[in-house]
Design a protein that fits this description.
436 residues; alpha+beta; Immunoglobulin-like; 4-stranded mixed sheet; disordered N terminus
């Protein structure tokens, strides 16, 4: 009897362990190998499970009884930040989907996700129809009212349909501004911006668990302007407003969110805005929380951001970088004599500039080296470059000064030694050089 009870006690949690499934079909199937599942909570991601993608593109992950309801993220490729999608799991049903990188995710089974995606498509289409009226030479009040009422009707219908669901929190927070009567384009734009955050509770922990607040905030920063040609100060004012909204949340969540916004601004090639965000809001929060890693990251970014003067260093016994005055543009290349990519790319840069003297570029090549022997032999192939050796490689002062994480790394400077570009790939560098 004891053995039977023991067997049952062991098997019970196993039998109850698997409650629901996350199943998907990826296409094209040969482009996907594996997935990783995370549960998201207030800016944190907790790893949950791993699922392989078979040759037919099928993937399945068992969601056990302990898996909480809420927001989840499925990563399907690297880098993780660029290859993932979020979804709702209510702990009551399987989540089944199809995914294609071009068309995105479509949910085959999951009322919560189907509801929210249906709402998003319907409300976006209705708003687009309303906005199209402003592109016409004249606006009819009757048509405007009908289209405005359609937006309102969709919002109310989905608010009712989603009552009691997780999706309801996102649908309610997505409520758009709806004018009571016909408004001019200028007034409508102003009111949309004024009321942009009215329906959003930044302290809502469920919203904090997803990308919702970040997506809304980056949209506000980059798109919500009353002028057709916004100035830098307009963008900064939008950053101020977003930071004000986040100020009602816990400092740790503020920091996580500001870092995410900063990364998105950099990815959007808005480094001047990222610099303002870092100086004004991100770094002070990091200092308040005594987050030494983020303090260092922020200081590194501010020191080498596009638009700031490049950190000075000694080029030779007589001159520093700032003393160089014989070119219109300067190119700093951080490389290493044992870096295969460097030994392939530097000759191409050398040949390109040698054949185009009108470009007026001076190259300062900084070798991150452990010992000078190989470096001394290699630099003989590029006599027109100004060569500097940084002993200690990744631990060298110059590597740390420029926060070098990979070789080769490129910095394009103007005559005043201000950083104008930081191309990541050789092709990006060549595009920059072509434009000079």
């Amino acid at each position: 009897m004891f053995k039977q009870l023991f067997y049952f006690s062991v098997m019970l949690p196993i039998l109850g362990f698997s409650q629901h499934q996350l199943k998907g079909v990826f296409s094209p199937a040969n482009e996907f190998k594996a997935t990783m599942l995370y549960h998201l909570s207030e800016g944190n991601a907790t790893y949950m499970s791993y699922g392989t993608v078979n040759p037919q593109g099928e993937m399945k992950i068992e969601l056990d009884a302990s898996a909480p309801s809420g927001i989840y993220k499925l990563v399907y490729a690297l880098p993780q930040a660029d290859h993932n999608f979020e979804f709702i799991y209510d702990a009551n049903e399987d989540v089944v989907f199809n995914f294609n990188p071009d068309s995105g995710v479509t949910f085959i089974n999951s009322k919560e996700n189907q509801l929210f995606h249906s709402y998003t498509q319907a409300i976006n289409n209705a708003q687009k129809e309303l906005l199209q009226m402003y592109a016409k030479p004249s606006m009819k009040s009757r048509v405007y009212k009908r289209r405005s009422q359609k937006v309102d009707s969709i919002q109310k219908r989905y608010t009712l349909l989603s009552k009691g669901t997780i999706a309801a929190r996102f649908i309610n927070a997505s409520q758009p501004y709806i004018a009571a009567k016909v408004e001019s384009a200028d007034l409508f734009t102003k009111n949309v911006k004024t009321h942009y955050f009215d329906a959003i509770d930044f302290k809502d922990q469920l919203l904090q668990s997803s990308n919702f607040l970040i997506d809304k905030s980056i949209d506000y920063i980059l798109r919500m302007h009353t002028s057709a040609t916004p100035l830098l100060q307009d963008y900064k004012a939008n950053i101020d407003e977003v930071s004000k909204q986040f100020s009602s949340t816990e400092p740790s969540f503020q920091l996580t969110s500001l870092v995410a916004l900063n990364d998105l601004l950099i990815e959007s090639q808005q480094e001047s805005l990222a610099l303002y965000l870092t100086k004004t809001f991100l770094l002070p929060i990091a200092i308040q929380l005594k987050d030494t890693e983020q303090i260092t990251n922020s200081e590194d970014f501010m020191r080498i951001a596009i638009g700031v003067k490049a950190p000075n260093f000694q080029v030779n016994n007589q001159k520093s970088l700032y003393d160089l005055e014989d070119a219109t543009n300067y190119l700093l290349i951080f490389w290493s004599s044992d870096c295969g990519h460097c030994l392939k790319e530097l000759p191409e840069v050398y040949s390109y500039l040698a054949s185009r003297p009108e470009k007026d570029f001076k190259v300062v090549a900084i070798g991150l080296e452990t010992t000078p022997e190989k470096w001394n032999k290699t630099i003989k192939f590029w006599p027109q470059f100004t060569h500097v050796i940084a002993k200690g490689k990744w631990d060298s002062k110059l590597s740390k000064l420029y926060a070098v994480e990979a070789t080769p790394s490129y910095y394009v400077l103007d005559a005043s030694k201000t950083i104008t570009s930081k191309p990541y790939h050789l092709k990006d560098l060549m595009d920059v050089l072509d434009q000079k």
